[in-house]
Amino acid sequence: MRVLLCRGRYIHVTERHLKKTEEWFDQRGEWAVFVGRLLPGIRTLISLPAGIAQMNVVKSTLFSAIG
Question: The domain containing residue 6 runs over which residues?
Answer without folding.
Answer: 2-66
